[in-house]
Amino acid sequence: MYQKYPKVGSVIIEDKFWTPYLNNVRYVMLPYVFRKFEEEGYVANYISVTKKDGAKHNGPYFSDGLFLESLRGACDFLAAERDPLLEAYIDKAIQILADASEAGEGYLCTGTTQRRPPEQRWGDNDGDIIDQHDLYNHGCLVEAAVSHYKATGKTTLLRTAVIAANLICSLIGKAPKKNIIPGHSLSEEAFVKLYCLFRDEPALKEFAQEYHVNYQDYLDIAEFWYDARGNHEGRFLSKRFVPAYSQDHVTFSQQTEAVGHSVRAMLCYLGATAVAKEKNREDFFRVLNQLWDSVVYKKLHISGGIGARHDIEGFDVDYNLPNKAYLETCAAIGLAFWNTEMNTVTLDSKYFDCFERSLYNNILSSVGEDFRHFFYQNPLESDGSLRRWVWHGCPCCPPMQLKLFSALNSFIYSYSEADKCINVNMFIGSRYENELFAIRQSEGQLAIDSKGEKLTVRIRIPEYVQHFGLSMSGAPVEYRVENGYAVVEAVWNTENPLNVSYENMLRRVYANPKAEEDNGKVAVMYGPYVMCAEGIDNGGDVDIEIAENPDLTVCGEMVYGKAASGKEFCLIPYYKWCNRGDGETDAKMTVWMKQENMRAPEELAARIGEKLYDIYE
């Protein structure tokens, strides 16, 4: 039985860190992103298509998708708290989209419309499925429409999305239809979401009849987009990229290694997990487990970043993990989303261990403290020249950030009505209630009301904690451990909250010796946070050799320790780097530092086995 997440917006976050952070995302970052898209002409593209005035296209081919991803984030924020001003902006944007859709008879991809002849839609007739992003853009439309309906109950955007989805299903699929797959994944998961919406929502029955919805078509085409990979008959391939770049080298059921563009790969695997659940594709599940192992045990940087290569923004060979790697923000966000979906299939702490590794390091690092500056790439060392940008010619990161942060509330808990269980996946202050239970999490306490029924509670034990324990009314509570979750069964009431206690580990970590660049080095982690040395705290010198016995201590957010030279060094959480100082010396940064008297690689290799990172003791 698959686990379910609460509806986006239904979990209320009340957390010392996350409440103010998410308020900044919603009230500072979100309007800033929309304003920049308007300034860059992304909205004007739709208006030009409506007017058919022949204007030049603004931005990349995927400008539509970026605007629509941001619209999805706005809708998900709206689901958490209605806001008349935000809703009015969304309604205005939806009307602009509807007008452009009508002008294109359902086809809504402004880049292709403004730059290519009509016969090259979808990358057909010597077009380019990777450059054009037709299916990606329409997938973003679909996912925004699903979020908008769930947030507001309105069908205005859903109408535009369904017209586009029906057009796609009528043209693309098994022969004699066109053999075309997404050059950039996203539409696969989006179409599964559209299928689930119409399957599960009785209120849409009349709408479905009016707009000729056969929701099974949406799931079938999503499955086709996986089974058709590697079959290039009749398909016009990219002139710049090999098929593996977009995970199109072999059919999905034959893929075993993460390859190609890392964002495309993560969204491909995310959609495949959704398809596998709905279609009961055991061959997909087998492949997804192999691909997860490939990413996490052979290609994952310690910060939760992926995609070492700059030239393709993608994966390199196993264990090649340079510290000046690309590590695109969107790739880490895609990995985070994929982990949440995998955890619904097999409840296992390892998925949220990976989720939090990306979230608290690579992803948080990508947003500046003013919420108006961003990192595209997130390397693990810098000579001080790298800075967050105010805006970018490829501004794909802010929309993905908005999508993740607006949906974060929904991943704190998951549950199964059939099994009468609730899973606490993250320790974030919050509250949630459904027909089965109510729960409130605050400062180590879980106040649960199981409404008079016996309820199984599973509490994740993160990889970064020690001395984990449960108690109630001062007495220890016994539990069993299943896949990294502490499991307790009881009839719960809020008068007797469950206390969760643990300590965040402060530790040095070493990499598998196969990752040659980090041989002889360690990184420091405190709880979920990767720590780094920044020039401003260390006299401009981050070339640190840690003493054999460094006496690491925590003081607030900082970690202090002793270098081999006898000097004291200072570390901060990686996500906070590049927010202080002016010069390049201040902004020098490194995560991996030399270790005095490092143990021999052979000894470390024997201890670490197949893992990529382990505690240096």
Structure overview:
It is a single chain. The protein is an alpha+beta fold and 617 residues long. Helices cover 38% and strands 17% of the residues. It contains 17 helices and 23 strands. The chain has helices spanning 18-39, 42-51, 63-80, 84-103, 110-115, 129-132, 134-152, 156-171, 187-200, 205-210, 215-227, 262-279, 282-298, 329-345, 349-365, 397-407, 601-608; strands at 12-13, 381-382, 413-416, 421-424, 430-433, 438-442, 445-449, 454-460, 465-472, 475-476, 480-482, 485-491, 498-504, 506-511, 521-526, 529-534, 545-546, 553-555, 558-562, 568-573, 589-590, 593-595, 613-615. The strands form three sheets. Strands 2, 14, 15, 16, 17, 18, 19, 20, 21, 22 and 23 form an eleven-stranded mixed sheet that branches. Strands 1-5-6-7-13-9-10 form a seven-stranded antiparallel sheet, with no helix packed on it. Strands 3-4-8-12-11 form a five-stranded mixed sheet, with no helix packed on it. The two termini are 40 Å apart.
Helical residue percent? 25-40%
Indicate the overall shape. Answer: globular
Low-confidence stretches: none
Distance between the termini: 40 Å
C-alpha-based Rg, rounded: 24 Å
Arithmetic mean of pLDDT: 97
* Overall strand count: 23
Features:
17 helices; globular; 17% strand; eleven-stranded mixed sheet; 617 residues; 38% helix; alpha+beta
Task: Please sum up the structure shown.
By secondary structure, the protein is of the alpha+beta class. 38% of the residues lie in helices and 17% in strands.
